[in-house]
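User: Second chain of the day. Same drill as before.
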Amino acid sequence: KYGIKKANTYNYENFDSIASNDDIDIVYIVLPNSMHAEYTIRAAKAGKHVICEKPMALNAAEGQAMIDACKANGVMLSIGYRLHFDPNTIEIMKLAEERPYGPIKYVQSEAAFAIGNNLDAWRLNRELAGGGAVMDMGIYCIQAARYATGEEPIAIRAQETKTDWGKFKEVDETVTWQMEFPGGAYSNSTTSYNLRANRLYVSYAQGAALLEPATKYTGIKGRVFRGQNPVRTLEVQTVNQQERQMDGFARGVREGIPSIVSGEEGLRDMKVIDALYRSLATGGKRVEI
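Assistant: Same format as last time:
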């Protein structure tokens, strides 16, 4: 269908033999979460550069092992954060950097969808997924709060709600959490496998910004406000986020330029997720990151 040579097609049994194939420079890991670390490390040992889907791993320890393996084998690692290549998301990042409306005060990020009733889906299996909505969609919320503030969170509190204990017996269904940032901003985020939400709102001292939808593959749009008055519309930009992501990584590999969504970027999110789950385990207590 895609014109791929049989010699460039691999399975789980013969994957490691990819090391002898000079036609392949980069491996894109799109397996269930629990397999990300293993296959990233195996690809690195085979001498291949790696793009790994989000979340990069099940926890920060695995993420660090992936980074270490890639460095030890002289290959580059990138995480599949396609939104870093979306024009309107980049505008939110610029507002965090330039701060034309003053300090960031508050961020609200939401990413959720209704997962359906296939109880055999790997996302509902803790062994394969490592978690539920947090690992799959919540990572968008964490990313959004980080790039909307331009800062790394220092503490977190998290709360979980379940309305379907049968379907979500192994993984989290709906989680809300609050994060503190060193500059004084705080965020409130919600993710779920049982409702629909897709929004990023940022409040500045003298304005605000809104993306809705905020994480889709197409159609991201929003507005920027001074006070309560809209001053700019962020129109839908017709771009292929993943094409830009993969082309950017390929150029970086050829030119020796580190990815803007490096393994270290993924590791920062895993540290937040580790802290989030610790907070849930202690009944929502504040946990430092």
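The chain has a mean pLDDT of 97.

User: Great, on to the next one.
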